[in-house]
Amino acid sequence: MLVVDRHGGLVRVNQAARTLLPGAESGDRLRDTVPAWLHEAHRSISDGSRSTSAGPLSGRINDRLLEAHPTPSDDGDVVWWLLDETDRRLAETALTDARTRTEILSEVSSALLSTLNVPRCMEVAASMAAEHFAEAAVLVAPPHGKRYPLTYACHGGPVRQVTRKIEAAEVPGLTEALRGFPPVPARWINPDDIPGWLIPDGFTGPVGSVIVTPLPGHGVPAGALVLLRSSTEQAFTEGEEVFARLFAARAGAALSAARLYTEQATITGTLMRELLPPTLNRVHGVEYAGGYRAAKDHERIGGDFYDVHPGSDPTQESLVVLGDVAGKGLDAAVLTGKIRNTLHALLPLAEDHQRVLNLLNGALISSHSTRFATLVLASVRRRGGRVQVRLTSAGHLPPLIVRADGTVEEVATGGNLVGVLPAVTTNTVRTVLEPGETCLLYTDGITEARGGPLGDELFGEHRLRRALAECAGMPAEAVVERVQMLTAQWLGAGRHDDMALVAVSAPKTGLLTVVNGHASRQNGRRDM
Amino acid sequence: MTTLPPPEFTLDFVREPGTLTVRVRGDLDYDTSDDALDAVLEQLSAGRAPRDVRLDFGELTWIDSTGLSTLLMIHRRTSTLGATLHLDNRPAVLERMLLMTNVLDHLTAPAADERAGAELEEDGVSGAGAT
């Protein structure tokens, strides 16, 4: 509290005011004692240009923030009540800062999590860091070999991404940050030690302050973030360092999510490319058509597969394989790959289906799993206008044959599934397809498609047979399309397993028939 | 038919001297097989090994290839324990699958047979405990 007379002379100074204004004594001139804002305010009240009821003024005295309330006394003196507002202001500022930071963090999170693309994620992280709390930000991602993907961002400037060979040890704290160790305090880093490659183009002036902080990922570090300020700006405070770490935690989480997703997508993509069934067409005068519809599950890789291995020349048999591995997902996919490769290697022995299946069975048996596969082998060769087929089922659905007159026959082949039993026994059935006749191999995804008017009924073998009866005389491709269309209609939007099918047809008017002049349709058909 | 919710998958175990009976209810498929296998193997390793293991499928509503794979694994374990597996009250869906894949004889072969044991050795079944 100060009492000041109308001429600006100090009348009284209490103890608190003396602490605030060391050396102030009664009789001193106000203008010599207090800052201008208070002395000006007193003068305007004394000359009547400001009313004392106009409310408090505020200003600084030394490092304190004060609110000054003037009260006039009867003798014309003014009593100045000075209230220290420093702490309240500090608290208010801290609150506003905290609010701003929370807003920034939530903005950062939503921006970062909206992308699962790793480079884009790094770009967003670097540019937001440069925008919100540094003049420049450099994101150093874990290296591919010795080359590090670097993302440079300058405040208000474009983001630049390069991959280059760097010496991480040149930057104080970077090696540690890349290994996920806690950050080195900014004040320990000498800005002069920052190598030129770390300073983005467009960064003005020498580096004044540096933060190097790890980007924590899921178990493994997702990289490190370097924040730079030029020497003309204020150095990073401790609070800013803490905030940078919070930011880095969010960026790291988003980046490692993106990285995991990308890795998984790459693995799935690679497997899918390897496992996708081939496109089929006409080989050695026989028509082949295949159809595959993967399960709609999130595990996109299923266990159905098919292949056609053409004979080395038209007199040799081609081998058709269609099968189904128990289960789904990666395990099933790996087993599918193994089966396809093994069968490919066993092609020279395809003369004897049972032998091939036993060799395959032996290759698949594993002590820790009873995962099995069921499959059908079909050896196909054209003779004149007719197609000779040898069919062997190893625990699989028996093939169906559509005769020219529309009858549908089930091929009476059967045998053990492969991959679990010590040995397998199968029986091979020989048959002949006349021109226009088709043999269909299919997996249980077709007959077990759930849907129909009630929504939960199996498509079933009888519907498949009825559908095939209408396919008499159709080329292989049309048979496959017809069955696929009917099952798709049956399913509607329902869930389904993998569905695979292969049709083998004797062409109605093949080139060979014309060349050889055989009237093949008059030939007997079932005996060879 | 669609209004009825499928029965929850459950296993009930009944222990009698020399015999373990497992009543299987609901769908034995990709979603339930892992748990089912764990539960059965746990029962098999608890207490004295039974001479007969009866799987009662009276209330089985569905089985898929993963379910069959589980039965094959249970059989491996009962064989190493010297127990015979029985598949009782088989519904059509199971019967059809066993017929098609031709494994019924394998699954229900009497375990005392010395020859079967020798075959299983070749089969690499010594490691069947690792599931």
From TrEMBL, chain A:
GO molecular function terms attached to this record:
phosphatase activity
InterPro entries given in the database record? Bact_Sigma-Reg, GAF, GAF-like_dom_sf, PPM-type-like_dom_sf, PPM-type_phosphatase-like_dom
Q: Where is the GAF domain?
A: 100-265
Q: Which UniProt keywords apply?
A: Hydrolase
Q: Tell me yes or no: is Aminoacyl-tRNA synthetase among this UniProt entry's keywords.
A: no
Q: Show the coiled coil region(s).
A: none
Domain PPM-type phosphatase intervals: 283-506
Signal peptide positions on this chain: none
Q: Name the residues that span the membrane.
A: none
- Do the record's keywords include Hydrolase? yes
Q: Which Pfam families match?
A: SpoIIE
Its domain of life reads Bacteria
The record, for PANTHER family, names: STAGE II SPORULATION PROTEIN E, STAGE II SPORULATION PROTEIN E-RELATED
Name of this chain's protein: Serine/threonine protein phosphatase
Top-level taxonomy: Bacteria, Bacillati, Actinomycetota, Actinomycetes, Kitasatosporales
